[in-house]
Specification:
about 325 residues, mainly alpha, about 0% strand
Length: about 325
Amino acid sequence: MTSGTHAKTKSIVITVVLMVVGGLAPAIVMGVLGWKSAVSVAMLGGLVTFLACTMGRGAQTGLIIAVPFSLMTALAVWSAPYALAAAVVLAVAAFLRGYGAKAGLHNALLGTVIALGFNVADPPNFDAAVPSAVLAGVVILVTTLWVSVVVFLARRWVHPPTLAPMGTPEALWFGSILAIMVGIATWCVVHFDLGHSGGWIILTIVVVYQPTLGAGFKKAGARALGTVVGFLIAIIVGVFVSSGPVLYLVGTVFMIAALVVMIQGRPYWWFAAFLTPAIVLYESAGSTVSKVAAERLEATLVGVAGTLLVMLILL
């Protein structure tokens, strides 16, 4: 094994370990303690913060988003029953993510809007005297701070990318268009009660729409291709394991594979092809793989089609 290959392998292993210790540990602990309602919130928050740190400016990015992300999560859960309020909350979050391009942080902040979208589409319900919105915000705050501390302690092994800041007019335009699309999509998701599938529509819009239209069209094609390939992989896995806890283990393998592909800088459709079966298998533990995969594919293609339509109009 050459020194370059050894260094890359070591980097991948360290990143996976940090993802588990930082991004997934809070969700695992809450699951062990029996606080099941908090597991999905903590998992989303942990993974989003970990990606924000590794794709942004390290632990500094985690600390910067900790309070705003927590407040926006609380507002998202509170507004979930109200279409207009939810649309406004998500539109504001989408604009802030887009405006983050001014500092080159638009990729790092991508996951925050996605997490908020799922919390609106399928809000957590805590069986407690304290409102669910407040508890969700607290879970995100604790999780975000935990991940930031882990990344800070492991800073010698974390190597954030070189960021490419964008001009103020371009960042404002990018954030404004993204806010409009996400706001309209969120209103539809809540008004028509699309549930978890609605979260995938929001996710696809946030992922596909890029600061430049050329990059956006390329991302749309890659997203669609990767989702279809991932859908086929999930169906094949479902033939052998249709439901049950084993799907969590298989899903985790695909999730790690998706992370490795991202770290190695492989084409985006590779990442989508591994991420799709990971999420489908996670969600299928209480359902069936074929049903969840079909819903996932449909929602993604709807999101891609809507985003492409907007970009064609902008042309």
